Amino acid sequence: MKSYQFKFWHYGVLLTLAIGSAVAYNLNVDDKSLFISGDATHGHHQIELACTSCHTDGFAGEDAVQQACLNCHAEELELVDDSHPRQKFLDPRNAVLLETLDARLCVSCHTEHKPQITGEMGVTLAGDFCFHCHSDIAEERSSHKDLGFETCASAGCHNYHDNGSLYEDFLIAHVDQPDLLETAKLPARTAVQSWLNEHSDKAPLKVSEADISSSSQTAEIATVWAQSIHAQTEVNCSSCHVDGQMQFSSVEIVEQCASCHSDQKESFTQGKHGMRMSNKLEEGFIQQVGAISPQQARLPMNSSATDELSCVSCHGPHEVNLQFAAVEACLGCHSDEHSLSYKESPHFDTWNSNPEGGVSCASCHLPRETHGEQVVVNHNQNHNLRPNEKMMPVCLSCHGAEFSLAALADKTLINNNFKHKPAEKHETFELIRERIARITKSKNKQNQSQ
Length: 450
What we know:
40% helix, two-stranded antiparallel ribbon, single chain, mainly alpha
């Protein structure tokens, strides 16, 4: 029998095939780690394996990547009336500015997978980047002549996209407000009360009316359910346990809840708790990676919090305890300094004495928003988390603007969960007072000359 003689190039072919197979396996089956050039930002790290959601087929060019950014972020930019919209930079008069910084593209400022140069808000430019276009600002505003460009985006001054609580007229209208408003009050939820008003002839469902096959286990659950909001609003067992299904994946739970709570699902899948389930990501992604668990977060979490996140992680599957969801559910997972300090804060004191009207974790991070005649909870905790000034509308429910801005600019105060009042006033309001004084002086001068 003739033995086969391997030649040197045969080994090369085998080595190439082995490497190719390993790479193909990593791309199509495994975690794609060989193709990730660096850690993603805190905003994208849990969806970094949804590669085609941003890169499409990998060869589509910068326009496709730009559109991928807008697929997820265009709506929020529109809501905040983006201070630097793309169309501003399509003006030919701004062409010379684009030679230094092409502000038409998101990736010019937010380059992903570059942890070594990534700062707050995922910005990958030097902190004084405003200089590129506003180098002559001190000539227009003498009050800015001694301010460094690295301070432009300091909390309480300017934000590149969202100046909704920072523009001059807003600050002038809110200057000299007291620290705590006489009208301090969070908006009351309306959903359940609206249903009860519309169905005043309906009585809450009883344990005996639970439409599920009876057993010792289901009897105990039915007792809990009969005390819940669902029983009060005619939501029986079969409304969720369709076709008798008793076990659900995290994705199935969210979809089942969305059959009644579609707005809540929409905001939940925009935030970090549920963004892996967003329908804006590539098809099949959530089935590949599963819902996020607290141990995959970058913030410190309790080691015992390991389950995947879904609606029932906070609300429970049967009791739907809103007060538990507003505080204890949060502290069951989060163990960072800010969270751990909550129960030593004045906010907790208000909650402890009045859970219905006090300030909980959810009051700030999952705020109640007024939409027409309805007050709904925004389950996208990213919506007002960063930059700090985005929390202003929530703070203004109870506090004056000057107090709020000073508090949100104080990192120590944020870490200890606003345990004390801000130690210092915010310089922005000193500039506003000077501005008001100049305007008043100018008007008086005009009146005298008439």
